[in-house]
Specification:
By secondary structure, the protein is an alpha+beta fold. The chain is built from 6 helices and 17 strands. It has helices at residues 233-244, 264-271, 317-336, 352-386, 389-412, 419-465, and strands spanning 13-21, 29-33, 43-44, 54-58, 67-74, 82-86, 97-104, 112-119, 127-130, 147-153, 192-199, 201-205, 220-223, 250-256, 292-296, 299-312, 348-351. The strands form 5 sheets. Strands 11, 14, 15, 16 and 17 form a 5-stranded antiparallel beta sheet that branches. The chain is flat and about 110 Å long.
Length: 466
């Protein structure tokens, strides 16, 4: 067994070495030893023949390594002794005595390998250890004390079961001394809509844009000449705190009132007492704030505060529209509380996600109106072509029934009414009217055919009598 010089305690791991003696036509003898030296004429076992030259085990039960294996030796066989390995006891009737024992695992463990053992039935009945072959070529019967398998720790990790290398956080106690440290904040991820509260911009001037093109000039920004960031510093800090503290609208750590790397954040507390303890954003290392300022002529002309909204981007447009109304109402309340002379009252909130939801809401409403229009056109067309008010009724019932069935299935499946669903419903009107209209046409043609049959039969009867 090994001894650790640092602790002067016995290491529970031991290494079992194997060597072999090839005797020509006789059975090969395998030797088990805890000593690294190999006497002559024994040779080291080769891994080319599925053999094991050494393996590690435990000197006493440790964790899941609790299966005891015993190495027995018999000196009754001449000229060399014979070794065997067993999960039971050595049989003294055949001269087997215990050499040493070790402990292994009966099932697979982390950082372990499986070894097979078996005893030869021919004299001198040695045991062989192999890596891949059950029975090791000696026996193909069921497992028992003299044949089976076990698991040992891998040589590359000699302390896989007994000793685990201590990590840097091993034994760390954040609440040592009776006081717990602050837990790490969760960094912001781009799953919520980023809402910007903008001051110093009145709007966009598009009056000079004469080109009717989708990628033409977007216009020029109209700046507020009365906006003075130093004059409005206290009100700006107050709005930043109020919006950042609204947990219904802003995620914790989602307030990004100032741009990254700007020296303005270090001098704000000196400019106004309201600017103390501004909310700090939870940003990843290297991640920049979405807040921004616009400079012109060495003066700050506009300011944009960014807030990570609780609005999930995957919600439907109609649900997100309610979030937009909450943002709009809250910002208007904050601006209304400012003095009448403040230029911040012309501030506004904007978000790239709002544009997407408004486009989808307009698309859905337009598709629903087109559904009603196509239904009206369909009813008018059927009335003109059939010229029968009573036959219009089954056509109308069929169309409305198909639409109601599809809407009910969408509701049961939990689908949200989006642009694709609304357009599909408008197309469904034209698809459902076709079949039932053919049925009505067939009914009318069949009625005309039946009305002609009695006259034809009377003509044939008169011809027969004449």
């Amino acid at each position: 067994m090994k001894t650790n010089p640092n602790t002067n305690k016995t290491d529970p791991l031991l290494t079992v070495y194997m060597s072999k003696l090839v005797q020509g036509g006789s059975t090969t003898i395998y030797r088990f030893s805890l000593n690294t030296s190999i006497p002559s004429p024994w040779k080291v076992c080769s891994t080319e023949h599925d053999e094991v030259s050494s393996f590690q085990a435990f000197s006493h039960p440790c964790n899941n390594y609790t299966s005891r294996m015993t190495v027995c030796v018999s000196r009754e066989y001449r000229p060399y002794p014979s070794w065997m390995i067993t999960s039971g006891l050595c049989d003294p009737r055949h001269g087997w005595t215990q050499e040493f024992s070790f402990y292994v695992a009966a099932s697979s463990q982390q950082n372990s390998r499986r070894l097979y053992f078996a005893q030869c039935h021919q004299r001198p009945h040695p045991s062989r250890l192999c890596v891949k072959t059950p029975g090791c070529g000696f026996s193909s019967g069921p497992d028992g004390p003299l044949k089976g398998s076990f698991y040992t720790p891998l040589p590359s990790d000699p302390s896989s079961a007994a000793k685990t290398k201590a990590s840097k956080t091993s034994g760390f106690n954040p609440c040592s001394g009776g006081v717990c440290g602050r837990p790490a904040v969760r960094p912001l991820v781009d799953t919520g809509a980023m809402v910007f509260v903008v001051f110093g911009i009145l709007g966009v001037n598009r009056s000079e844009n004469r080109e009717n093109h989708v990628i033409g000039d977007m216009g020029s920004v109209m700046l507020d000449p009365e906006f003075d960031i130093f004059k409005e510093m206290g009100h700006l800090c107050k709005i930043c705190k109020a919006v950042g503290a609204n947990r219904k609208l802003v995620k914790p750590g989602g307030a990004q009132c100032l741009p990254s790397g700007n020296k303005l954040s270090s001098v704000l507390p000196l400019l106004h007492p309201e600017c103390h303890s501004l909310p700090e954003p939870n940003l990843l290392p290297g991640q920049l704030s979405h807040g921004a300022v616009g400079m012109h002529g060495g003066k700050v002309r506009w300011l944009s505060m960014a807030f990570e909204s609780t609005t999930y981007k995957g919600k439907s447009s109609f649900q997100t529209y309610s979030d937009f109304l909450q943002w709009e109402n809250f910002i208007q309340e904050q601006l209304a509380s400012l003095p009448q002379t403040s230029a911040l009252q012309r501030g506004f909130q904007t978000c790239e996600h709002w544009k997407q939801i408004f486009m989808e809401i307009i698309g859905v409403e337009s598709a629903l109106w087109s559904l009603l229009l196509s239904l009206a056109i369909c009813v008018a067309a059927v009335s003109v072509f059939t010229a029968h008010p009573l036959l219009l009724l089954p056509v109308l019932i069929t169309i409305i029934g198909v639409i109601c069935l599809v809407v009910a299935v969408m509701y049961w499946l939990g689908w949200e009414m989006g642009a694709v669903e609304a357009i599909s419903l408008s197309i469904l009107v034209g698809s459902s009217v076709d079949y039932c209209l053919h049925l009505v046409e067939g009914y009318l043609l069949a009625g005309e055919t039946v009305s002609l049959m009695p006259g034809q039969s009377s003509v044939r009867e008169s011809q027969f009598l004449s």
